[in-house]
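To illustrate the input format used throughout this study, we show a single complete record. The first block contains the structure-token representation of the backbone; no residue identities are included at this stage. The design step must infer an amino acid for every position from geometry alone.
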């Protein structure tokens, strides 16, 4: 009877240690297509993404400005030729 109690207490301690080890280790989990962070997400390295231009269509704006200037220059040339 004493041996059975000793084995039961050892099994209970091992089960407790295993449960503690499993619950204390963090890992990422995928649930419903979402990647959820580990419990240590506050201590992870931060990834830096440099800021882009505030105005997304900056090249289009430059092209329109160049077009406007060329049109004004062409219009001035045409008005200069009229007597």
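Output of the design step:
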């Amino acid at each position: 009877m004493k041996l059975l109690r000793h084995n039961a207490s050892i099994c209970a301690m091992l089960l407790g240690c295993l449960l503690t080890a499993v619950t204390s280790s963090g890992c990422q989990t995928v649930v419903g297509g979402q990647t959820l962070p580990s419990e240590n997400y506050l201590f992870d390295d931060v990834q830096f993404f440099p800021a882009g231009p505030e105005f997304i269509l900056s090249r289009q704006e430059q092209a329109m400005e160049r077009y406007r200037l060329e049109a004004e220059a062409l219009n001035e040339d045409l008005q200069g030729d009229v007597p």
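Structural context for interpreting the output: Strands lie at 29-31, 34-36. The mean pLDDT is 79.
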